[in-house]
């Protein structure tokens, strides 16, 4: 179901605290071509239902994190009503240490 084990661990953390979530429920189109077809899109990993917020989890190399930051900035510029938080490897490791999750990143 999850693209990476760190997403599974974050889902387990949400579950343990009773945080309702959905996995990749929405894809936001960021750019389209002249025919109106999507050329760039962003699908955050989690939607936190009770907080009306999205969470993107990444434990990948820095170049991919930079690309995700760019997409989040584009989304925020187009849709200021949408809240997205990016959790990087360090954030995921800290959550794991703080809340006793087994290896999360």
Describe this structure in words.
This protein is α+β, with helices and mostly antiparallel strands and 105 residues long. It has one domain: Endonuclease, Chain A. It contains 3 helices and 6 strands, in the order H-E-E-E-E-E-H-E-H. The strands form 2 sheets. A 4-stranded mixed β-sheet has the order 1-4-5-6, with helices on both faces. It has a two-stranded antiparallel sheet with strand order 2-3. Strand 4 and strand 5 form a beta hairpin.
Task: Based on the model shown, name its key terms.
Endonuclease, Chain A, single chain, alpha+beta, 105 residues, four-stranded mixed β-sheet, two-stranded antiparallel sheet
The chain-level structural class is alpha+beta
Q: Major beta sheet, specifics?
A: 4 strands, mixed
Strand order of the largest sheet: 1-4-5-6
Task: Output the number of helix runs.
Answer: 3
Indicate the overall shape. Answer: globular
Summarize it.
The chain has 105 residues and is α+β, with helices and mostly antiparallel strands. It is 38% helix and 24% strand.
SSE blueprint:
Elements: H1 5-16, E1 21-23, E2 28-32, E3 38-42, E4 46-48, E5 53-57, H2 62-78, E6 84-87, H3 89-99
Parallel strand pairs: 5-6
Antiparallel strand pairs: 1-4, 2-3, 4-5
């Amino acid at each position: 179901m999850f693209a990476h084990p760190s997403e599974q661990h974050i889902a387990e953390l949400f579950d343990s605290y009773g945080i309702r979530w959905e996995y990749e429920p929405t894809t936001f189109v960021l750019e389209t071509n002249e025919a109106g077809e999507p050329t760039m899109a962003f699908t955050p990993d989690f939607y936190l239902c009770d907080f009306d917020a999205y969470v993107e989890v990444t434990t990948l190399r820095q170049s991919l994190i930079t690309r995700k930051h760019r997409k989040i900035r584009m989304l925020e510029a187009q849709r200021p009503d949408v809240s997205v938080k990016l959790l990087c490897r360090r954030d995921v490791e800290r959550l794991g240490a703080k809340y006793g999750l087994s290896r999360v990143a």
